[in-house]
TrEMBL record:
It holds the Pfam family PORR. Residues 286-413 form the Fido domain. This is Protein ROOT PRIMORDIUM DEFECTIVE 1. The lineage of its organism: Eukaryota, Viridiplantae, Streptophyta, Embryophyta, Tracheophyta. Residues 380-426 are annotated as: Disordered.
Length: 426
């Protein structure tokens, strides 16, 4: 459970300012070396594991739906495997057959008479996909604004398409945004050739109305006029039950919260990267970045690729460990996922984008297929007359036992290869 702390001020998040002396100390002395611990948050871990297969399944639905016959052979789908983040030892056909409520298997004959599996979509999946297209159309300006704000965070208002592709699921961008969205806004976006010969997306004009962070908006909404005037905005901070913040760390955090807040949309080249003032600006950048995502989270590797575009110093992701009350790092699903704590109440996202609601419905459809198949509703007959489950037949008995577990948990849960560390020296 996450508890958000309110210090002295009633009705607002954050820590009370400790005085100008704290600012001078931090500004002159640089980063304070504090020792904080990582504590497992089961609720936020569950948020990550619940979406383990959802992203890959949704991408496959988009790929199949974009084909002329809405049906593709497995070798065409395998070309997109790198975008699915599936385990290397899991066959793509095996993954698809896990969800018969979404994917329909058929066969075609390849050269030499070999039978090749092809996959199309069930009526329920097609309906959800069309509803998603309608939601994207109805919320197009919101999508465009979030894309603008992301580019406004970067140097030169530019991002490589490769980096943007890694974030498109988190931003709620359609799978084919390069063709379905960007060309319709030539006044805002342009494809350019980067110095390293990659293709990038450039924002053509700055929108001053969008250059306001969510933290600033929340402060204005909560009428923190004194904080707004002083520029010392505090971040909402909460910890997992049992965190046990030490007194030294508590005092450091109180002083850190009193430091000037630098908007992530303003120039910060004058800040010394070795100071806590600069660190607070970096925290503000990632606070705003996560606010732009529809699930208020993203994989840490996606953030690491933003160092140069965001003009950040080396080892900048250390702010996630130094501020576990603002960010939570989940180590589930063989990766690290950074989650904005304030956006969740246990496992519930407090403000849901319409696309999130659709994804949750899609997750229920995936689960229905898992449960129905576990009841034997998708058995097929082979030539010898023996009924078999095509999924079990494809992967063998060992994988079958894992599948029974996934029925109860909805999706496979992969623990991180990185061992849990009860404490981290920063």
């Amino acid at each position: 459970m996450v508890r958000f702390f309110l210090f002295v001020k009633v009705g607002g998040f954050g820590f009370l300012r400790g005085g100008q002396h704290g600012f001078n100390y931090q500004h002159k002395r640089g980063l304070v070396n504090v020792k904080l611990k990582w504590v497992k948050d089961r609720g936020l871990d569950a948020v990550v594991t619940a979406e383990r297969d959802l992203k890959a399944a949704c991408i496959l639905v988009s790929i199949i739906s974009s084909s002329p016959q809405c049906c593709l052979p497995i070798y065409h789908l395998s070309c997109h495997r790198g975008q699915l983040s599936l385990p290397c030892d899991l066959k793509l056909s095996t993954f698809i057959r896990k969800f018969p409520s979404v994917f329909v298997e058929s066969h075609t004959f390849w050269s030499g008479g070999a039978r090749v599996p092809c996959f199309s979509l069930t009526p329920e999946a097609i309906q959800l996909y069309h509803e998603e297209l309608n939601v994207l159309q109805q919320n197009q300006m919101d999508l465009i604004n979030r894309l603008q704000k992301l580019l406004m965070l970067t140097q030169g208002w530019t991002l490589p398409l490769q980096t943007l592709d890694q974030l498109k699921w988190d931003l709620g961008l359609p799978y084919d945004y390069q063709h379905s969205v960007i060309p319709h806004h030539p006044d805002l976006f342009s494809f350019i050739r980067l110095p390293d010969d990659r293709v990038g997306l450039k924002l053509l004009s700055w929108d001053e109305d969008l250059a306001v962070s969510q933290l600033q908006k929340n402060s204005a909404r909560q009428q923190k006029e004194e904080d707004a005037r002083s520029g010392c905005l505090a971040f909402p901070v909460g910890f997992t039950r049992g965190f046990g913040l030490k007194r030294k760390c508590m005092e450091w955090l109180k002083e850190w919260q009193t430091l000037p807040y630098t908007s992530p949309y303003s120039d910060a080249s004058h800040l010394d990267p070795r100071t806590d003032v600069s660190e607070k600006r970096i925290v503000g950048v990632f606070h705003e970045l996560l606010q732009l995502t529809i699930h208020k989270k993203t994989e840490r590797k996606n953030v690491s690729n933003l160092r140069k575009p965001l003009a950040l110093p080396q080892k900048f992701t250390k702010v996630f460990e130094r501020h576990p009350g603002i960010f939570y790092i989940s180590k589930k699903c063989a990766t690290q996922t950074v989650i904005l704590r304030e956006a969740y109440d246990h496992q519930q996202l407090l403000q849901k984008h319409p696309t999130v609601d659709l994804r949750e419905r899609f997750a229920r459809l995936l689960r229905k297929g898992l449960l129905d198949r576990s009841k034997g509703l998708y058995k097929k007959s082979k030539g010898d007359g023996v009924e078999v489950d095509p999924y079990v037949d494809d992967i063998g008995n060992n994988q079958s036992s894992s599948e029974e577990e996934s029925v109860n948990n909805l999706f496979y849960e992969y623990n991180s290869d990185e061992p849990d560390e009860p404490r981290m020296q920063l």
